[in-house]
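Lab notebook, design round three. We kept the backbone fixed and only want residue identities now. Task for the bench partner: fill in a sequence for the structure below.
Input structure tokens:
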């Protein structure tokens, strides 16, 4: 590779265990420098102990949240029937599982987080480009989810305590709502501040608790409805012809984009895995099955609400607030609290904590990065973002979703095609080594990212008065690609990066492996 400098063998050596997992050899820890801190270094084999259940529980905990519940309702609102909506969600999560398993492979094998894996392709400095894009998305989602969770607590407490919502307003909102938001924010950061082991234990019991809560809601509405109402019998307004496919493909990309963030930074979790089997089976059992079953559950409960109240109530918080049983309200309150904390910490705090640590390892560790995420999540004013979803949530996150697909294509191409899953661990932290390229930047990765990004989001368009883009698209001839942004970005960057890097790969890269005695 160009830009490669020799590193003394004792610094490059790494132990390869019989199961294929790799760790630094004794005495091979990189010297303290601008690209090293304890949170970014490889997790030792002894601390990689997440099992299949841990990964399954992680996904169950992340998938069971209010925005996930509302996915099926959005598709039904577009004209699909419940079968088409559930099919779209199931297919999307099977598709997005594939890049997750591919990028997740580096976690159990090398014990490294996403920004360190990105150094292999983008360079030690260049890795900050994808890391900061991912961190920006996570900070925004953290603020939005925290606001949604605070609103859920506010609504349910209002049903328990009369007059809770009828208080003085501050900045246009009741002060009790601000209190719920602040308390929820503090609880989240308190949990993540205790580290990844605390998160693992929290997800282990949060996952089954949230499942029980959702099933209780299903049983409650079924008893009140005497059945699941007419929604399941309503035909699709789109049919299965051209009208359906016109809506299906953009919707499929939207459902994929829902978890495209985790398809990048899943190594942040799999680096703690006890082996590849644990992360592969855990993710395969946890993601597509949970999202599909949760979509079914939301449809069944919503159809029951239509039978009981005469109109479908898609928001589970609003539905739970209709009960007059105090115990039921308290149970719903705790369920909403745990469900939202579970997804927000795992999906939207862990990643930017590592990404920000990668930006300045000497000054920012994992805990500091988590606190910065929490502060930025408030500064973006999520209460404003949720007021204008067309402009800020769907448009902005749609743009970033296309860019995230572009980054995923580069990571997959570099790790699987160019390097055949072989990395030199110590050199991922060493200026002047093989991943230094030119002044810490790999221009090939940046080029593939730029081209893939333009193809993915260049055709972005908005209906008149509904968004910031021209109706014909930013780049009119790319408009037909806009509805397939994630897939276009991933495929284009993967192909271009591979073509640019192949001339540099004349022979397998030498890696100073030392077989483990264990």
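Proposed sequence:
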């Amino acid at each position: 590779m160009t830009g490669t400098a020799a590193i003394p063998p004792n610094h490059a050596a790494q132990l390869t265990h019989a199961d294929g997992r790799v760790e630094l050899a004794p005495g091979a820890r990189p010297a303290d420098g601008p690209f090293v801190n304890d949170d970014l270094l490889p997790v030792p084999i002894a601390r990689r102990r997440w099992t299949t259940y841990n990964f399954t529980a992680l996904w169950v905990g992340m998938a069971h949240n209010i925005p996930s519940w509302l996915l099926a309702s959005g598709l039904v609102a577009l004209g699909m029937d419940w079968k088409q909506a559930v099919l779209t969600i199931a297919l999307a999560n099977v598709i997005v599982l594939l890049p997750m398993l591919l990028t997740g492979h580096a976690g159990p094998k090398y014990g490294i987080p996403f920004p360190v894996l990105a150094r292999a392709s983008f360079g030690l400095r260049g890795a900050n480009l994808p890391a900061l894009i991912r961190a920006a998305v996570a900070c925004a989602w953290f603020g939005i989810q925290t606001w949604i969770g605070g609103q859920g607590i506010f609504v349910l407490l209002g049903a328990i305590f009369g007059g809770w919502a009828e208080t003085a307003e501050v900045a246009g909102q009741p002060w009790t709502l601000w209190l719920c938001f602040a308390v929820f924010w503090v609880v989240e950061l308190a949990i993540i501040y205790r580290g990844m082991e605390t998160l693992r234990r929290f997800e282990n019991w949060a996952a089954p608790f949230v499942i029980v809560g959702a099933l209780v809601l299903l049983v409650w509405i079924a008893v009140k409805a005497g059945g699941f109402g007419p929604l399941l019998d309503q035909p699709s307004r789109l049919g299965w012809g051209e009208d359906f496919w016109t809506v299906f493909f953009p919707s499929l990309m939207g459902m994929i984009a829902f978890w495209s963030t985790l398809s990048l930074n899943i190594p942040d979790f799999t680096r703690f895995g006890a082996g590849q089997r644990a992360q592969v089976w855990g993710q395969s059992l946890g993601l597509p099955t949970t999202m599909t079953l949760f979509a079914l559950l939301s449809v069944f409960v919503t159809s029951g609400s239509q039978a009981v109240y005469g109109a479908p109530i898609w928001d589970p918080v609003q539905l739970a607030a209709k009960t007059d049983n105090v115990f039921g309200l308290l149970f719903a309150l705790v369920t909403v609290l745990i469900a939202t904390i579970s997804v927000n910490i795992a999906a939207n705090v862990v990643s930017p904590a590592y990404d920000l640590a990668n930006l300045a390892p000497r000054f920012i560790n994992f805990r500091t990065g988590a606190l910065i995420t929490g502060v930025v999540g408030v500064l973006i004013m999520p209460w404003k973002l949720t007021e204008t979803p067309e402009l800020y949530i769907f448009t902005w996150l749609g743009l970033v979703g296309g860019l995230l697909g572009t980054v995923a294509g580069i990571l997959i191409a570099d790790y699987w095609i160019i390097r055949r899953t072989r990395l030199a661990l110590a050199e991922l932290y060493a200026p002047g080594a093989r991943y230094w390229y030119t002044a810490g930047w790999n221009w090939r990765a940046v080029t593939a990212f730029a081209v893939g990004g333009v193809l993915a989001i260049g055709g972005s368009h908005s209906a008149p008065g509904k968004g910031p883009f021209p109706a014909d698209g930013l780049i009119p001839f790319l408009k037909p690609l806009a509805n397939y942004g994630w897939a276009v970005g991933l495929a284009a960057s993967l192909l271009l990066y591979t073509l640019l890097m192949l001339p540099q790969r004349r022979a397998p890269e030498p890696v100073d492996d030392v077989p483990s005695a264990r």
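Keep this in mind before ordering anything: Strands lie at 14-16, 22-24, 169-170, 173-174, 513-515.
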